[in-house]
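Q: I have 242 residues here and want to know how they pack in 3D. Can you give me a structure?
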Amino acid sequence: TNLTRQQRVTEITSLIPTVLSILQTQIKPEAQMSTPAELPLKENLLAKLKAAPLQGISTEMLEGHWALYKGYVNNFNTLRRELNQARANGDYSLATLDHKRRLNFELNGVILHELYFSNLTPRPTPPSDKVKQYFAQYFGTFEKFMEELVNTASKTRGIGWTIVYADPYTCNIHWVEMHENGNPAGCMPLVVLDCWEHAFAKDYGNTGRPNYVAAVTQLIDWGEVEQRLDALTSGHMLQRHY
């Protein structure tokens, strides 16, 4: 009868809160959130740079710089764990949202340092004709490209990064002050030079950036730069596989 069906509906409806309560006790909120893998330290980069003496960069300065990179990795992983927990708790307070700003700084600190370390080598070789021709089409000659790179890195006021960014239509040498600010969206970093004082002060003093730049540009791994160029021209995203 209609009355019997109504009674059944009422009975089933009354059980819904009980079922939900049981499910909530068996499935914890944090268990439903996937935990992202932590960023690893790319120890093979340090091993590559210590395989032979780096002309113009002391082991002490290299290890100090590496320790700073480790700090960025650790800080990023800590912030991401805290943000993941905040997400599980529905915490979108101003303090939590400020973690997102800090996350950008730490993550780009990781990425730019990995790109910097990976485009240096203790055993540099001359760039290939393909690399020279690529830069010549934007700067006139490869030598003019290197001239602009050295002058930008050694003379720009302040602290920051000198980065050669390219996309399928343009290639420019950029001065990027903060890790997370000034990086052109969608562009490929072909050459990355760290021009913060921590990259050179121990060996060259606080005013020794020009001498550091003269040394570090002799250590550019043009084979690595060519791999980045190949990724750009083939339409692939740069893989941080180091």
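Q: Anything worth noting?
A: The longest strand covers residues 161-167. Confidence is low (pLDDT under 50) at residues 27-31.
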